[in-house]
Amino acid sequence: MEILPHTTYMTSLFHTYPYFHSPTKIAKSRPAFKASVLGNNEEVHAIRITPKLHNQQEIPTIVESKRSLQVIRALVDSRKPSSELSLLEKIFKTINSYIIKFLDSPLHLSVDPSYILSDNFAPVDELSPTKCEVIHGFIPPCLDGVYIRNGPNPQFISGGPQHYLDGDGMMHCIRISDGQPSFCSRYVKTNKYILEHQARSNLVPNVIGANTSLAFFGGNLYALCESDLPYAIKVEEDGDITTLGRHDFHGKLSMNMTAHPKTDPETKETFAFRYWATRPYLTYFRIDACGNKQPEVPIFSMKHPSLTHDLAITQKYAVIFDIQLGADPMNLIRGRRLLSVDPKKVSRIGILQRYAKDESDMMWFEVPGLNIFHVVNAWDERDKDGQDVVVLVAPNMLSVEHFFERMDLMRASMEKVTINLGTGVVSRHIMATDNVECPVINPAYIAKRNKYVYAAIFEKTPISSRMIRTIGVAKLDIFASEDKSDQHKHTVASRIYGNNCFGGEPFFIARDSENPNSEEDDGYVVSYVHDENSGESRFLVMDARSPTLEVVAAVKLPRQVPYGLHGIFIKEKDLINDEVTT
After folding, report:
1. Is 260 annotated as a binding residue?
2. Which keywords accompany this UniProt record (predicted)?
């Protein structure tokens, strides 16, 4: 089995061993006994990370012998834990408890599981398909299909630091048939999940949890996380969800992949990339309409690591982001986080031909202070002289230095960026400063000029060091006004969920996606919403054309749905039951 490079040093997306509790405290460490399960049901490979205590004395390294591997394999292959492994587990638990009790200072709130995984951020158990009640209005026929949302839901919580974005992926799925909904929750059954489920303990780095998003391309559905390969997912007839396995596109994708690929609605091609902590820091690639991965294009002109989370495409180009947040392996040697913010770095936008075979024609444009995590859309235009122009719309994450420990202090402004490829001139227009993020559009308009954006509205006074909750959804008109003194004109509709009610990323579903003459906003916006007063969660369906985003249907869900990340809607006709060839 090939062990991917990051398993030797990454134990958490946000904290490594050694890690800092806060920027001003002494670095401390906990011993970490981890097992990599990045291979496809091959030999389990144990890894022992040797951390240092604050006095720089090393904890003795335990080199895993062949016998030790056999012991771990016995755990994986049998539901009866061996006495030998039980003893080994007791030893490590004792060491871990000792360090937590006597050597470690309190965890920073941002990575303290007892703090960040409380209330409706707390993980929940799986739930088999359960019928739901429509308590308001009726569900439009165009919603026949499934809406699935992914998000972190740790199966086991370790005694060490844990960021909210760590953890196993759980999919919350509502399937609608003839207006009748059913709901279920299932883990993405990654190799990590399976091993830990059998071990009944946290063993593997949280970073490989397939917990971020879902994408449907090449006729197949995938659960995605940018630090691992995709996992193929199957929706059963009764609305249940099955994980088919880790998918490497017939051996052509050996490492990780972005959680935000872009699929052209006309050509059905999918465009993606992966980033890494060593050169090439980013690699671009394409997947054809049949799901076949095409040759990769390494981007060596990206000179420094960048935590590039998303990309945009136009009819001609791929748009790539080089932001101030990055991953530098040398930080581990310096006793710092693997991931860090470089305040001196100037952010850049890279423009690459969509079907480029190499990066020789790539163009880079400096955009100081522009840190893009999620893209709205991009499209091609021409100036009066016939020069190519790329227009990009995306939220800009402000105060990115708070990304690790004070996400509650981060803010987002919606920007329209125009890049003239001929003159090199970049112009920026702030559309909204209302702290909106997690934007979506009508998927039929990806890579071409669109007018409307639907985005989550962040709460005004978030709780310290907690993930920011969303209090509603806003509809923005990109072309409403270019007057800098009146940025609120871009917001043409909105809905606030109510007192102590919070949702997540919205999703747009067209009323008639097969009709080329349909208006861009003719459809519905959906989201899970949780009432923290009653403890009840609902699935809301809102009229996208209404000035108040009127709720046309509300479904009472059988149990609370924790706040999560990104979702997808798949029409009934597109659901398939064939297994993916891995």
Report:
1. yes
2. Dioxygenase, Iron, Metal-binding, Oxidoreductase
